[in-house]
Specification:
Glycosyltransferase, alpha+beta, 3-stranded antiparallel beta sheet, single chain
């Protein structure tokens, strides 16, 4: 996702000038601020898909050159860094990239990555790994690569890792996983956790159970989710923070984004992946409660700030870019009007800032933080809303919005050795950081490619993605 500094500087030269009074930006290419509201612009989608593939391949080549087998590349300096356990790289970006490489028909690159995993990836490490992140990134990445290749070694490694993570569930009297587990010893730590970190396992664990014939994995994932669901208030809301040992909420804040987001995704995904009607009902009930008790309008825009889970009183008026996922999920559960309305809020933020701020003060629509980490949630929402209609009837507006998201990323985040997070989205040119998060390889570049390119290896009508965008169903072999 990164590019040469010469290209970055020349592209950002188009962005001279500062923030205009009120909002908007001066000196931007026309596509950077157009939402397509006056009509979807004509686009050569195949050419745009080819451009996404070329950028991904270019960034991959730099990763191979500068950071092969390391967790993350720092694309400005050409260095690398560990993510899970300092000094013990687990090939995070490589594993996250595998199914994207396969979808893009970059078969030599895919096989080289698989060969590295088979020869080098070993989880017998005396160190603590974050259970949630390890599951969605590595277990999910290995499973999707196994589905793409059929290689049984990848499935074996996914199972080995999941078995180590299960220790975090088994240590809790309520089946709520601790935040960290020692991959070698099974020792656990950090019981003060949250909905996202106790409830984002069902798709990966459920698929692993299907592939191995072992139902322990899905049972563990569902038990944790049900524990929290059973503690919903009369409003139908849950607090975002919970304790693995006591099983009780440790805050009063109901959140749709930080500390909670993927919990709600996995309720619906449990239905779509495994036909779990109990989880389908829970997803619909939770979404309805959010709309009724968390949805608020400020200056005409729909936001979902944190509220007290028992009273519904607003407790925090910040909203993160992570929350954009909810627009797509609302559409999936049958609340498409509300989903489109919430997407419009983030579309307005994209128009105003070019890159959606990491956090926004909802009462004013002003950025609270000016850094951002190459976030994919807006594209994720557009993809889910676009896929909500049958092939041939899909709304091109979602593609057009995603095209703006992609091009804005290219013009701001391209660095010498790949694509980087940003330190400040309000400067001109935008001030770059020096890190490509592992999810970039699995998430937004895959979202872009699926929406723009003809993908003969994916059946979009059957597609099932994890919260990390690992393909868990829908490959065409």
């Amino acid at each position: 996702m990164r590019a040469r500094s010469l290209h970055r500087r020349s592209a950002l030269g188009l962005m001279g000038g500062g923030l205009l009074a009120g909002s908007g930006l001066s000196g931007l290419p026309a596509w950077a601020t157009s939402s397509g509201s006056a009509g979807v612009p004509t686009e050569d989608w195949a050419a745009l898909g080819a451009d996404v593939k070329a950028e991904f391949k270019w960034a991959w080549d730099h990763y191979v050159e500068k950071a092969w087998g390391r967790d993350e590349i720092n694309p400005v300096s050409g260095t690398s860094q560990s993510f899970f356990i300092e000094g013990h790289d687990l090939g995070l970006s490589l594993v996250e990239a595998l199914d994207t490489l396969w979808i893009m028909e970059l078969d030599d690159e895919f096989q080289a990555g698989v060969d590295w995993v088979k020869a080098n990836l070993n989880f017998d490490i005396d160190g603590y790994a974050q259970v949630f992140e390890t599951n969605i990134r590595l277990v999910g990445g290995l499973l999707s690569a196994h589905l793409a290749s059929g290689d049984p070694v990848l499935l074996d490694k996914a199972r080995d890792l999941a078995d180590r993570l299960l220790k975090a569930f088994e240590a809790s009297p309520h089946g709520l996983p601790y935040r960290y587990v020692n991959l070698r010893t099974g020792a656990v730590r950090d019981p003060e956790t949250n909905l996202a970190e106790i409830g984002t396992y069902a798709t990966e664990f459920g698929l692993l159970g299907q592939l191995t014939g072992d139902d322990r994995y899905y049972a563990a994932a569902k038990r944790a989710m049900k524990h929290a669901l059973d503690m919903r208030s009369p409003l139908g809301l849950m607090a975002a923070n919970i304790h693995a040992e006591t099983g009780l909420f440790t805050s009063r804040n109901a959140s749709i984004d930080v500390y909670a987001d993927s919990f709600y995704e996995y309720l619906w995904d449990s239905w779509e992946m495994f036909g779990d009607t109990e989880m389908k009902t829970a997803a619909q009930e939770c979404m309805a409660a959010m709309v009724a008790h968390q949805g608020h309008r400020y200056d005409g825009k729909l936001w979902f700030p944190m509220v007290d889970y028992e009273t519904g009183a607003v407790t925090n008026t910040s909203q993160t870019v992570l929350g954009a996922y909810l627009a797509g999920l609302l559409g999936q559960v049958g609340l498409k009007t509300e989903g489109d309305d919430f997407l419009a809020t983030y579309t307005a933020m994209q128009e105003k800032y070019v890159i959606i701020p990491e956090s926004t003060e909802v009462t004013t629509g002003v950025a609270r933080t000016t850094r951002t980490g190459l976030r994919p949630e807006f594209a994720d929402a557009c993809l889910n809303l676009w896929l909500g209609a049958p092939s041939g009837q899909r709304d091109e507006r979602y593609r057009a919005l995603t095209a703006i998201h992609y091009r804005n990323m290219k013009v701001t985040s391209k660095a010498e050795f790949g694509y980087t997070a940003l330190k400040d989205i309000t400067t001109r040119p935008m001030t770059q950081g020096d890190n490509c998060p592992g999810y970039w390889w699995s998430e937004q570049m895959k979202y872009y490619y699926l929406m723009f390119a003809d993908c003969p290896r994916v059946d979009l009508d059957r597609l099932q993605l994890s919260t990390e965008a690992n393909v868990l169903r829908g490959f065409v072999k």
